[in-house]
Specification:
Elements lengths: L1 H7 L12 H9 L22 H4 L8 H8 L1 H6 L3 H10 L4 H5 L6 H12 L19 H23 L3 H22 L16 H21 L12 H9 L1 H18 L6 H34 L5 H19 L4 H23 L10 H10 L3 H21 L14
Length: about 400
């Protein structure tokens, strides 16, 4: 009986048979004792689990530059030199900080690697000549002279007519001047060089307002307090601005020609910007000099005073807005034009609102400025405050290589 009792005592299994409940109880009472390996019940065969890391081999890291080249494959295929690739990457928002993620110090270094990979074939690449610089054509040259000719005819008609015929001449001249100006801006260097997209209406309306204020604004401010105000026309600034479409086109042509040439001779984006920035400033200075001469001639021919302080900032604002718009930057010109037009409109609104009862205080700022510097001080201040930030923005935007290259179609 004792032997049978010993057999019934739970203990460590000595064979490979299945563990029973008594064996598990003994294991719970003696956790520190070594036990034989617990055999598994007959189940479906399983794969060994020890080399889990080698069961799924690790994937090699992808080449980020190769992925970038695939995304911009059209740009790499047609690029003549690395600077064109750098300009295209810059146009897509890739900066030096982004290039650092590709283990390059700047965008041009990244573009050099992309250009080297794109042209690395068994056969030597065929040298592609750079595209020819834009040439001056008689079509856009004549179109830039059209607004000045139409404005001259309109001003002549206004001086020769009175009453209702004068209103008819003014209406017809305004329509003809609008159409001729749009025709002049649709061809040549002042037309859009990037992919055409629907243009917002606000910048156009603000431009028309600024030109209308140059014609009527000073007279309205002067006669606002008169019992029977008369709309005095100041035609010299408008005549000079319309004739200045021709020098504006020529200076834009000079800037574009120089920038296209530097695209194939510069060795980096910084080199390109350093070469284009003085040309941009020289183009603006040439235009303002031509506008000053045209204003002096117009004022002499019409026997009117020459409001240089009003016309020169307005001309600079219109030129910079057009240059930025033609090279793909529309947001900053729209803000600048809107701010200048809103300032002039506010000045007129407060001046006329001060004639209402108990509202005489509204025109105090404007009247103080007019008494100190004349009615031309209002548009001069408004256009100067808008043109100076726009000039700073243009020196940073128009010196990018991406501003002078055609846009790459999206993949």
């Amino acid at each position: 009986m004792s032997d049978l009792g010993e057999l019934d005592h739970p203990g460590t299994p000595g064979g490979v048979g299945a563990w029973d409940e008594r064996s598990r109880e003994w294991l719970a009472q003696h956790p520190g004792k070594p036990t034989a390996t617990e055999p598994t019940e007959p189940t479906e065969p399983t794969e060994p689990t020890e080399p889990r890391a080698t069961a799924t081999p690790r994937r090699a890291a992808a080449d980020p530059v190769k992925a970038l080249m695939h995304r911009h494959r059209d740009l790499c295929a047609r690029a003549v030199d690395p600077l064109e690739i750098a300009a295209g990457l810059e146009a897509h928002g890739i900066t030096d900080r982004t290039a650092a993620r590709f283990r390059h110090r700047d965008v041009f270094s990244l573009a050099e690697e992309m250009h080297a990979r794109a042209t690395h074939t068994d056969e030597p690449p065929i040298p592609t000549p750079p595209p020819p610089a834009p040439r001056a054509h008689a079509a856009w040259i004549l179109l830039t002279l059209l607004p000045g000719a139409v404005c001259t005819a309109t001003v002549t008609g206004l001086h020769l007519t009175q009453g209702q015929p004068r209103l008819a001449v003014a209406a017809a001249g305004a329509l003809a001047l609008t159409l001729s100006t749009r025709a002049a801006l649709s061809r040549g260097p002042l037309s859009r060089t990037t992919t055409p997209t629907p243009a917002p209406l606000t910048p156009h309306l603000c431009t028309y307002w600024l030109l209308a204020y140059a014609l009527l604004g000073n007279g309205l401010l002067t006669t606002a307090d008169a019992p029977h105000p008369a709309w005095l026309l100041t035609t010299a600034p408008l005549l000079a601005l319309t004739w200045s479409c021709a020098p504006a086109a020529w200076t834009a042509h000079l800037l574009t020609t120089h920038a296209r040439r530097r695209l194939h001779t510069s060795r980096g984006l910084e080199d390109f910007a350093a070469a284009v920035r003085p040309v941009l400033l020289a183009a603006v200075a040439l235009y303002l000099g031509a506008l000053t001469a045209l204003l002096a001639l117009s004022a002499t021919a019409l026997a009117e005073p020459a409001p240089y302080a009003q016309t020169i900032p307005l001309g600079a604002l219109l030129l910079l807005s057009r240059l930025l718009t033609t090279h793909g930057s529309r947001h900053a010109p729209a803000i600048a034009l809107t701010a200048a037009a809103a300032t002039e409109a506010t000045a007129l609104a407060t001046t006329f609102a001060s004639r209402l009862p108990a509202c005489a205080f509204l025109d105090t700022p404007v009247q103080t400025l007019v008494d100190a510097a004349g009615p031309s001080a209002v548009p001069a201040l408004a256009c100067t405050a808008a043109a100076l930030p726009l000039l700073w923005h243009a020196t940073h935007t128009l010196t990018h290589a991406s501003s002078h290259t055609p846009r790459e179609p999206q993949c």
